[in-house]
Amino acid sequence: MTALGNDHITHIQSVAQKSRAAMNSVLDGKDHAVRTALITLFSGGHLLLEDVPGVGKTLLAKALGRVVGGSVRRVQFTPDLLPSDVVGVSIFNQETRSFEFRAGPVFANVVIADEINRASPKTQSAMLECMAENQASVDGTTYRMPQPFMVVATQNPVDMEGTYSLPEAQRDRFTARISIGYPSSAAEIDMLDHHVEYDPLAQTSAVTTLDEVTQARDLIRHVQASPELRAYVVSLLDATRNDPGIALGSSPRAGVQLLRTAKVLAVLGGRGYVTPDDVQSLAVDVLSHRIVPREGDDPQLAASLVGDVLRRVPVR
Amino acid sequence: MSAGPTLTQTPSSPAADGPSADGATTRHDTAPWLPAVCTALAMLLAAYSVSAIFADWAWLPPTLVMIVLVVGSGALLRAIPVVRATGSAVLAQCVLAVLAALYLCAPSAMPFGVPSPGAFAELFSVLGSGIDDIYATTAPAPSTPGFTAILVVGIGLITILIDGLVADLRAPKIGGILLLLIWIIPVFLAGPHLSWHHFAAIGCAFVVLMLSHYLAVRVRRAAAFSVVAGAVALVLGVGLPMLLPPVAQRPQQPLGQPEDITVINPFLDLHADLDQSNDQVVFTYSTDDPMAPPIRLTSVSAFDGTTWMPEPFDIDPFAVAADGLPRPEGVSADTPVVERSAQISIEDLDEQHLPAPYAPSSVDGVERRWIYDPSTLTIVGNGVLSTDAEYTVDYRSVEPTVDQLVEAEPVDGDEFESALELPDDVPDVIHTTAEEVTAGSENQWETAIALQDWFRSDEFEYSLDAPADASGSALEDFLRDRRGYCVQFSGAMTAMSRSLGIPARIGVGFTAGTPTGDDEYEVRLNQAHAWPELYFEGAGWVRFEPTPGGPAGDPPPWADASGGDEGSEEETSSPTEAPAEETEAAQETPPAEAEAEETEAAEDTEPVSDGAPAWILVTGGAVLLALLLIVPSVARIFVRRSRLSGGAASRAEGLWEEIAATAIDEGRGWDRSRTLRDHEQRLATGLESDDAQTLARASDAAEALRYGGGADERAVPSTDESTRLVAALRGTRAQDMGVWSRIRATVLPRSLVQQVPRGRDVSQKPAPEDSTARTDAGHG
């Protein structure tokens, strides 16, 4: 087991802070989204962005790829997109007389799955398999994803005609769901000033390396979660399952991912152990897209239900 | 990679894995009825300790019924889960107890087994009569209906409380405090009659109560410990006093009386006092009075056929002895009266009467709470005792001549009803013997002298082995056996004088004592004495001395028919008994017999003096109430101290427990779904920066301890810092709270009864390292 020392904590903290600062310079006033995106990255999860068009979903994803110095690929999901368009195909090479794998866009460090709900369920599931397994199988051959690997999927909540909204089981594979939201007036004025003249991404360079991120991911697993803390997480999950307003509660996987993200947050706070504060501050983002409220599948309703659970469950 | 200090140790306490981690609380009652049995047993034992108050056992059956009913119904009701969960058994018990109290104490008000409208009024009037009884009787007292009713209702109430504490709240310790309330009853009302077995009973009751839950859950070790501790305490409590030298028995005291003053009856103690072993000096005095009169405490004249008691008098708090006393009753202007004075210094006497020669005219050097009864010139402490008093008494020594007494007119019986009263059941032999002995007497003085001489003749023998009192039948025995001491001699002469129409009463006090130098005397306890005082027109109450031996001395000059026959056939009048004669020699014959009687008859103990018992009850009650009031806050202080002290780890958790408890005390509650950090930020507003820093360190430490496996000990706030912080937190919130809320938070801290959120149990040992990776392994 790799131990986590104070120097590691400090190092990861500084890497994360630099990344955060860099991304914040691209996305003015979107600190919460930036923070959650980075935490998801360091926890080894995937991110679901749900928001109206034009608020910077793609920009966020691209900035994320840029600061870690990794490759960024974007897939625009459409109803006619095929799994092979995402994963890649094996093509017969006449010269070598053998099949050759042409990797699809999913083989990148940060994959932007734009409007994932517009694709057919078949294509969606191919994508989701890559997310869950960190690998893709084409014609019996398994290809591993580059590391780190992170999918940032976006969903457009409006204009839902002819879409295949992600079912609960699929949403569960995303570590966190966030919406970016409209910028504040001041940030928007700034944006009009800067973004019209320059490409904000052009001024952003990598502040860390892929190796550093991978290493940090490994280290963060060793952040301590005391029995009390774990019991607290479980009682939160339990509360969502027993809540009369919730039709489907959180899965065990939700708990795992909640704890992972909480560990990241602990390190970002300079701690080698998780506190309930970490859990509480991430619970809404990590849990609310996984539960199904009894009345209407409204993200805000789900978020408020999770908030109620937080206010009800005693901290240990 | 090097391990970070906070990360390498991951204590995992097995108990912390589940919510009910508290090993001790996951107990299974193997015998849920045992606490009830223990409660009932404890109450029975406690009731036994109360028995010292009573002369009979009539009070016991209804008390038993009440205890069994309350505890039994409680046990049955609590067997119903809903009742147990809601704790509503106590309500049902209250209803049952009220009904039972009505049945047991006011049966006449329950014509058809149903409380009539007047039932409660009836019950209250019975209780009221009980209160009167308490004031009017001395322990051991007969268990009157009122007295019994008070006991039944009181014991019932305490049983309900203790049962609720033990069965619902599992707090037998607080129940034990209530047991002490019961113990206080016999201590106040029947202190002198308590013996070791009463103490043992209440002690056992306490131990049984403490054991209730241990027995039920069979925690053997704890039970054994409690038993041993309880037994040791009991043995020490019962045994040690028996090893100590006996302490002079204190005068019996009536329970109280309708006035705010209660009086003891020294007459009843004479027999005990006269024991030769009681040779401690009770007081010394100096006087230049050659007659050395006895030093009087009071006189008893109310005779009901059984007991001689002081005559009731109206307490007048403004009749202050220090302001001077009136001239003694019935002393005419031509009666020789000599002004004398005596300096008295009390050594060992806790009396409610002030010793003084008759007839005191003023007292210097005592508090103004010493008041006097104008008819007997008894000086009574209104809530004060004679303990260690030093004072000067000026007194009028009335020294009638024999001639004067001989010539005294017969008294008018109407004016002296009480001093002439003889109950119908007094044996005739008293009157007939009196007639025989005084046959031929021509006047009152001759009659008195005839009686005195008869008693002083060879026919009578001084003996402390006499029958025990001066009741009618005891006097009959005395006249037959002709053996006795001052109680019988004075009682018989007084009764016989009355039967012949001479107003008579018994003076009680001490003989003049033993000379220790020029005009100096010391008086010992066994020189207590009683003597008859006969009323002569013009001379007032005149002392005679029929007791032929013991500490009593010679008769006063006017009563000395042998040598002093000189002047007179009769001695008229020294108005009150003692003034004129005062030889130090007056020894007393012990009138002990009456003592036992008085206790029974004590219903109207005379208000002659002495306010102690009533005051003791009132002040004792007030003190008790105050003690009860401060018990919670004192307990709270101890809890606070224990939380804020101890090792770093327990201090870190204790501080938060205390902060939460304070919030609960203040009625604002403690949101347990908030994290420490969250609480810290809310609390920090309004704090001085020092305290805010302490608070931040406190949450750092507790967080590291709970979730990080260990805190840096140096970072944990010290006891002083913690105490300051808690005080500061209270301060920031005090201004938002009303006065009453603040008082309530202090006097009735809710955190004592409500559950306070507890942190990690720091006493548990950290388990071996627990791999956090395990959590991650589950990730699919």
Question: What does it look like?
Answer:
- The complex is a heterodimer of chains A (316) and B (780).
- Chain A has helices at residues 6-26, 31-43, 57-67, 83-87, 121-133, 168-171, 185-197, 210-220, 227-242, 252-268, 276-287, 299-312, and strands spanning 47-50, 72-76, 88-93, 98-103, 110-114, 135-138, 141-144, 150-155, 176-178, 246-248, 292-293.
- By secondary structure, chain A is an alpha/beta fold.
- Chain A has a domain at 223-316: Helicase, Ruva Protein, domain 3.
- In chain A, the strands form 4 sheets. In chain A, strands 2-5-8-1-9 form a 5-stranded parallel sheet. A two-stranded antiparallel sheet of chain A has the order 3-4. A two-stranded antiparallel sheet of chain A has the order 6-7.
- In chain A, a hairpin with a 2-residue loop joins strand 6 and strand 7 (141-144).
- Chain A starts with 5 loop residues before the first helix and ends with a helix.
- Chain B has 3 domains: 16-243, no CATH class; 258-610, C8orf32 fold; 616-752, Four Helix Bundle (Hemerythrin (Met), subunit A) (Up-down Bundle).
- In chain B, the strands form 5 sheets. A 6-stranded antiparallel sheet of chain B has the order 7-10-5-1-15-14, with no helix packed on it. Chain B has a 5-stranded antiparallel sheet with strand order 6-2-13-16-17. Chain B has a two-stranded antiparallel sheet with strand order 3-4.
- In chain B, strand 16 (528-536) and strand 17 (540-543) form a beta hairpin.
- The longest helix of chain B has 33 residues, at 612-644.
- The interface between A and B is large, with 43 and 41 residues.
- Chain B: Pfam families: TgpA_N, Transglut_core.
- Chain B: The chain crosses the membrane at residues 33-53, 59-77, 89-110, 147-167, 174-190, 196-216, 223-244, 614-635.
- Chain B: Residues 594-607 have a biased composition (Acidic residues).
- Chain B: InterPro entries: Bact_TGase-like, Papain-like_cys_pep_sf, TgpA_N, Transglutaminase-like.
- Chain B: GO terms for molecular function: peptidase activity.
